[in-house]
Amino acid sequence: MQHQTIAPEALDRIRGDFPELAEEVQGHPLAYLDTGATALRPTPVLDVERSFGETRTAAVHRGAHTLAALATVAYEDARERIAAFVGADADEVSWTQNATDALNMVSLSLARAQRSPHESLVDLGPGDVIVTTEAEHHANLLPWQDLAAATGATLRVIPVDDDGVWTADDARAVIDERTRVVAFAHVGNVTGLVAPVAEIVEAARAVGALTVLDACQSAPHMPLDLHMLGVDAAAFSSHKMLGPGGVGVLYLRRELGLALPPARTGGSMITTVTLEGAEWMPPPQRFEAGTQAVTQVVGLAAAVDYLDAVGLEAIAAHEVALGARLAEGLATIDGIRLIGPAAGRDRVGLASIVVDGVHAHDVGQVLDAQGIAARVGHHCAQPLHRRLGVAATTRASTYLYTTEAEVDRFLDAVSGVRAYFGVGR
Amino acid sequence: MSGLDDLYQQIILDHAKARHGEGALDAESAHAERFERNPTCGDEVRLRITIDGADVDRVGWEGQGCSISQASASILGQDVPGLTRAAAQDRVDAMRRMLRTRGEHDEADLELLGDASAFEGVAKFPMRVKCAMLPWVALEDTLRQVTARD
């Protein structure tokens, strides 16, 4: 087994690429522990965005002039690189605004497919079942509520336990022969739980259901091979993986992409248009109506290059170690409830906590006063928080630029929170 | 943590625990009720009032959330009963003015607000202004409800 991680000198060099990490907040060096919400961007990515804006501004897939051709080459080259990054083929990767948009596209396309069922891989109607989990981000819950409402299908959730954890057995108990879609997060954005993807795909395939993977918290942090995982659709966002905001990725397995109608129609996604109707382009252009976020796509490709240069195995190992340090450190602090897998069990570099007697907003304020950026709130997962019996949690999340010292600063600050508010004495 | 201490003055931490007026009025007895929620952080306050002619007679609330929102509800529960409806609205207006200025303080408002003047430091933390205002926004709505029925 390989134990490659990010060496200390490499970590110093990486940190030098992120301008924000040289900033002070409230008189302290910034400890950025909110990558789960948005990652910082390194100088090489920012340089590519600027340089593209200076030398390649032109509409892609339109026009015959040189600049348009150069822009189109860069844009399609970016698609190849990002597809390779997640183990997909380029024609299976379409651009969206973000992962939320990508998941909505799947739901809307499936709804539209029901109006011309002969073209559909999936028939959805009353009695059919869409399955998701109780731990999902709202972006992987609301589109399925909408699809259920649009088709008459039933939405069913895989329940979580008191820690927010669900297992393959829990999933198998919910997936039945009427299940047509199973949508779940690869890594929980609150729990840090890594889903048993292979087992879910197997269970879904056995009943002919599609699998839709929310890869927002996995694609940036671990090697991902969508073909090997065998999911039918996947979504992730550029801004969580060193890239710019405004672009996301929708992966559709080739057969599914060819079978699905587009959620949106308009320019650049057609072959022939008459006043009565249109024929669509094949994927990926079929799902890209209108002018896309070209600069951001090229920026995302630069981000992927940056991640590849460091190596996803090394990034994953670095973050698993930080996640373990977080979980173990938190377990030693009185009055802290850790959500998700307990200390000692597998978790990524992400930990959400409840500080007994102190609201998460107040915890976040104490952290901010010490220069520590963490996320507080329900993290767009209200049903999960309701199930856990809490209004809000405080989440620390790491990335390739995070140090052990930053994790320790978080642990130290958290250990002082209850005393500051006069709780537990 | 001096900036933090400006935000969390002792009187606020005390009120966050004292919770004056919590559970003081049930739904059947109330003349007006308003539920306010801050979706970004989950702060919630359900505020109820009774009126007696031109006066706010009783105030009760239920809620959960950060210490700023809960202390603010406690101060409201302590200070608003017995004020005229017009004076209660003046407090809401003064709170809003205080929280929206960034550092320029108005002595007359601070005096009027009493314990609530401790929230002056919140003005420097724009993300928390909504927390401090939450119960007062609910109060303003209940006052509007009873006025509409006059």
TrEMBL record, chain A:
Describe the family membership recorded for this protein in Swiss-Prot or TrEMBL. Answer: Belongs to the class-V pyridoxal-phosphate-dependent aminotransferase family. Csd subfamily.
Stated name of the protein:
Cysteine desulfurase
What PANTHER family does this protein's entry cite?
Answer: CYSTEINE DESULFURASE (PTHR43586), CYSTEINE DESULFURASE 1, CHLOROPLASTIC (PTHR43586:SF8)
Q: Which UniProt keywords apply?
A: Pyridoxal phosphate, Transferase
Q: Pfam families, per this entry?
A: Aminotran_5 (PF00266)
The EC number(s) attached to this protein equal 2.8.1.7
Reaction(s) catalyzed by this protein? Answer: (sulfur carrier)-H + L-cysteine = (sulfur carrier)-SH + L-alanine
Function noted in UniProt: Catalyzes the removal of elemental sulfur and selenium atoms from L-cysteine, L-cystine, L-selenocysteine, and L-selenocystine to produce L-alanine.
* Xref: CDD domains: SufS_like
Organism of origin:
Agrococcus versicolor
Residues in Aminotransferase class V domain copies: 32-410
What does the record give as cofactor? pyridoxal 5'-phosphate
UniProtKB/TrEMBL annotation, chain B:
Q: Which SUPFAM superfamilies match?
A: SufE/NifU
Query: Which residues lie in coiled coils?
Result: none
The chain positions of domain NIF system FeS cluster assembly NifU N-terminal read 8-131
What Pfam families does this protein's entry cite? NifU_N
Spans through the membrane: none
Taxonomically, the superkingdom here is Bacteria
Matching entries from InterPro entries are given as: NIF_FeS_clus_asmbl_NifU_N
Which protein are we looking at? SUF system NifU family Fe-S cluster assembly protein
Species, as recorded: Agrococcus versicolor
